[in-house]
Structures are given as C-alpha cells and as structure tokens.
UniProtKB/TrEMBL annotation:
Protein name listed in UniProt: histidine kinase
Histidine kinase domain mapped to chain residues: 338-551
Source organism per UniProt: Candidatus Borkfalkia excrementigallinarum
One function term, GO molecular function aspect: phosphoprotein phosphatase activity
InterPro entries in UniProt: BphY/WalK/GraS-like, HATPase_C_sf, HATPase_dom, His_kinase_dom, HisK_dim/P_dom, HisK_dim/P_sf, Sig_transdc_His_kin-like_C
Amino acid sequence: MRKRILLVSLLVSVVGLVLLSVLFTEMYYNGAISQAEGQLKIYMQVFAEEYDGSAEAEGETERISSLLGGARVTLFSPDGSVLADTQSDTSENHAEREEVSEALEHGEGFAVRASSTLGVNMIYYCKAFPEGGETQYLVRIALPVSSEVSVFTDAIPTLLWFVLIDILVCLLIAWMATSFILRPVERLTKAAATSGGKEVQTEYSELKPIAKMMNDMNAELNERVAKMKEDRRIEKLILGSMEHGIVIFRSAEDVILINKTAAHLLDYEQNEPIRSFTEDREIADILAANEPASVYRKIEGRDYNLRFTFKEKSSVLLITDVTESMAAARSKNDFIANVTHEMNTPLTSIRGFAELIAEGGIPPERTKSVAKTIIKQSDRLSNLIRSIINFSAIDSDELPDYEVDLTELVRETISSFEPKLSQKNIALKLDIASGVKVMSRRERLLEIFNNLVSNGIRYNKEGGTLTVTLTGGEHPALAVADTGVGIAEEDKERIFDRFYTVDKSHNGGGGGFGLGLAIVKKLCKRAGWKLSVQSELGVGTEFSIQFNPPKEAK
C-alpha cells in the first residue's frame, strides 16, 4: 500500500509539473507576443515621425530600420506590392498576407508566422497610412520571435531539473505523509494481531469502523475457535471411550487421528509412523490399492478385524474385537455338528433295527428286545430334541420371576431319583435348610436341579455317595457333590460347553448329550447367579450355585 501511494503521488506530481510547465510556457509566450506588439507599435510611431515621403523609399527604410535596431521594415503600395524591404529583395505581392489584408481592411494588423523568405519565426505589424481618404502606402515592421514549441524546447533542460527536484521532494513529502497516514492503521493492525482476542480501540474516528469490523471478526473467530476446540474435545472423548480402534491417515506414515484403543493395539506413539502399515505386505498392498478391504489379525491373543475405507484425501481404519463373534460362530458350527451327530446316532440305530425287522432278519424271540431298543433310542432322540428346545428357549424367555420355595422343590424332586440311586447303590445325603426361598421360576430351578443331580448319579461310582446341600441366609446356596470319576483340570473350562462330555464317547450309550451343564450355566448367567465347580480326578465333583438375595429378581 505504501509503495502504491508513493507511486501515485510521484505520478501526480510529475504530471502536474509538466502541465504547469506547458501552462507557464503558454503564458510566457503570450506575454512575449504582447510585449513585441507594444514594441512594434512604438517602432511604427518612430517610422511615422521619421519617414520622408519625398526621399527614396529604399534609403528611408534602411535608415529607419537602423534607428529601430535593425528591425525589418517593409513598404507596400496600396495593392500589396513591395516597394522596399530592408531584409529581402523579393517583389512578390503581399496583399494576401494576414497582417497586410487586415491593415487594408481595418487600418492595422498583426500576425505571427515563420517568414517564407527569411525562414525564421517573425511577428509582423502592418499599418496603412491614408491621405485624402485613401491609403497611400502600407508599412510593415517585423521582429524575430521564438515559436511556442521552441520556447518549450528551450525550457526542457531547466524543466528536467525541476522534475528531478520535484521527484525527490515529492518522494520525501509522500513518504512522510504516507507514514503519518498509515501509522494509525499499522498500530491498529498490530493491536489486532497482539490483542489475544480482546477488543482493539482507536482514537481516530475514521478508523473506528475498521476497528469495529476487526472486533466483530475477532469475536466471530474466537467463537469458531472455541467451538472447534469443544468439538475436538468431544471428538477425543468419544473416540477415547470407544471400544473400537479408529485410525484416520493420509498415508502409511501420515496419521491424522488415532484413538487410545487403536494406539494400544497397534503399539503406536504420537508422531511416529505405524510400522505395521509399512512392514506388513498385505496391509501395504491394501493401502496402495486404495480400495475398501478387510483383514483379520490376532493381537494379544484376541481376534481383531481391520476394516479399511478410503475417501478422497484420507483413509479410515476401523479395528473391531471379533473374538466373541468368531467364538460364537465357531460355537454355532460346533453346535450344528454336534446336534447332527447326536441325532444321527439314535436315528441310525432305529433305522437299522427297523430295516432288519422289515427284511425278517430278526428271530421272533429277539423281536421284543429289538423293539425295546428302538423305544429306548426314540426316547433318547426325544430327550435330545427337548433339551435343544429348552436350551434355545432360555434366550427368549421373558416371563416374570416370582418367589419359589427352594426347600420344598428340592425335597419333592429328590425322591424321583431314588430308582437311579438304587441301581448304582449310591447313598444319598441331604443337608437342607428350611424356608429357603429365591426369586426365579419353578421350571428353571427344576431344570438346574435335575441336571446337577443326574450328572451326580451318572458320573458317580458304584456304592458312592451323592450329597445335596441347601443353605439359606442373605445369599442362599445349593451344592450337589458326588464321589465319582471327577474332572481333569484341562476339562474344567469346557464342561459347560454344549455337547461336551467328560467321557467323550458320544456313542449313544447311557450317557447324556452334554447339554445339561450348558443349560445350567446359561440359566445361572441369565439370572445373575454365581456358578462354580470344584473337582479332583478320581475323588469326586461338587457343583455349587450362590443365589441372589430373595428380594432380587432377574
């Protein structure tokens, strides 16, 4: 801005000086012409006083010209013919010359032009001298004068000096004036830059609108910055609390944003490139392809899905823990395989015996035995289907809980197991507290108790002992202990899996399907009860359940 002001000031001053020079030249020229006209009139009076008409014209004009300092004197006849000329011998008729024609018409005339005979610029004054009412002769006196152009040309060297001085003076004045004018603006600008968001003030009324505009802009900017900071804080809070890992980057080495989860999983530190992006060939290829992709990685013993999405100038990596979902998928596949296997065993037995009967391959004396086997396998298949239905129905069970007398339920149910206890000569020990009540539903508790007691009998040894303990208090507890085969340490984590059995036979014998403990675990987890197991291989096993206080319902 300062340079522009200086340039404009300099241009204006130079143009003004040139225009003034032209104006002064014109004034000087006009003044010189006026002065020459006055001098010529005086010369004409001298001529009139000194001219002797009886003398020779040539001699008189020469004499008077010398009196006039050598001025050119020309004598004309009334028709414009030259009678005498002190500086030219021409006999050309001058009646058409401007000054001569004006003198013939008005008595006198002036003209300024370059002389066609002498080749110099002249000012001419011509006057008619009448006698008896008619013009006797005309006299023209001429003096050399400079032309307007030559006057200006002669002034150019001086003008150049004036221009140079004018430039220097104008530059100095313009610089001082510009500094004086801009100093308040610069102070205002500096105040705005260093105000730290505070209002700026100025004592100049002309600058107050600018100060107000700056204050308004500062206020708006501060508001936007505050909003951006708040948005950034909320964004970090949200991203920091997310279980998923989020990474936004321009390239493998240029990370824009990364939350704590992703930083932990990728062993990332701020201002460092994520090494796995550049060293992992598969991920590097994904970044190079710039196409959405998904890969799986095992990090710290857990399964994670790394999903890449790409925008115009950035890419987003979403890291999701899929350990449970993958385990659920594997469990579902195992469940389907186990169901197929468990159902196929009795079906194969039933079909085989049915085909033998149809083909007459069974002796009459064995028909009854085969029929009992078919009935037994049918019952087994029905029990399997019922167990599967019960297991699946737990998730959709939304019926309300109510208070159940667990003491009464245990006493009523345990008697139904007496035949099985007698078959294996198992002694039953009961330690049941009175009036123990829990919030649940009767069918749920029956399912749990029947499964625990059935397992206690099935995996007990001949002549063993089955102990059922029920305690009351703030946290009622039920325990079922046997003196059977026990559970190996490596099997304890899996005994609650669906279709898992300790004997691993799956041979369709008298064992269970491996759904009983899975149902027990699922019911306890849904109700919020604590299920635990203690076992020693070859000594026995104890399952215990700690219930919630009676007033709590799940």
